[in-house]
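Here is the promised in-class demo. Please do not try to memorize the tokens; focus on the logic of going from shape to residues.
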């Protein structure tokens, strides 16, 4: 048997590498390159509120032989960590928030979404006379960011209404996901600080990385080619960053 589970000279094909592909809108070109165009379009319709029960496309085989499994961005690290799939493509900010026990194979060289602190235009800093309330989609990253600065904040964890909470007066500021070039969030809130820069990573389960190294390299080569970028190996510093949500 070789390292990927196929008997040498037996004529038996290796088990297909299972890749969970995040349906984050910013990854649309990669989704299409890997044959997940229908799933990407369905996900975009759902994000826009136009989906009327149309199911997202299921797994498909890419031209490079990857079994591509379209997945919600927040599910990708969990699927990889639990061994449901061998590897996955996911945004850096999600890895930092979930702290999944996975191996980062490479930075794919895609700008991706970033995590930023936004405030109303009339504010330049958080209130100092009391504990600020921060609405956020990423409570773990946010709490650690302010803790490193010795600042106590009250976290209001919200999935989609972080900006609304600021506008309605329920929070002083919001930490939320923005595109690479966005300087404003919903309702005209302005970016005051970047907590975590953008980036997209190819990750693998620890077992797949050890047991199937050749397959993981093949997956890396295929995803790198589809991304059209010179993917860089994830450094030890980068891996520590995602596990501990460092800036």
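The designed amino acids, position by position:
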């Amino acid at each position: 048997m070789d390292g990927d589970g196929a008997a040498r000279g037996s004529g038996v094909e290796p088990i297909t590498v299972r890749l969970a592909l995040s349906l984050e809108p910013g990854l649309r070109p990669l989704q299409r390159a890997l044959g997940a165009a229908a799933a990407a379009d369905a996900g975009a319709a759902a994000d826009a509120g136009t989906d009327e029960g149309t199911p997202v496309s299921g797994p498909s085989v890419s031209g490079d032989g990857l079994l591509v499994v379209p997945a919600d961005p927040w599910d990708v690290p969990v699927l990889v960590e639990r061994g449901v799939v061998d590897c996955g493509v996911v945004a850096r900010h999600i890895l930092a928030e979930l702290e999944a026990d996975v191996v980062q194979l490479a930075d794919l060289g895609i700008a991706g979404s970033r995590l930023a602190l936004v405030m109303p235009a009339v504010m330049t800093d958080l209130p100092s006379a009391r504990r600020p309330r921060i609405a956020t989609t990423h409570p773990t990253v946010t709490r650690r960011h302010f803790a490193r600065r010795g600042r106590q904040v009250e976290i209001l964890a919200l999935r989609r209404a972080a900006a609304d909470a600021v506008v309605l007066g329920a929070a002083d500021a919001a930490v939320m996901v923005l595109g690479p070039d966005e300087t404003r969030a919903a309702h005209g809130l302005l970016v005051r600080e970047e907590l975590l820069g953008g980036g997209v990573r190819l990750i693998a389960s620890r077992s797949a990385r050890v047991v199937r190294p050749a397959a993981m390299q093949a997956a890396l080569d295929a995803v790198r080619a589809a991304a059209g970028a010179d993917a860089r190996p994830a450094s030890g510093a980068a891996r520590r960053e995602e596990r501990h949500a460092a800036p």
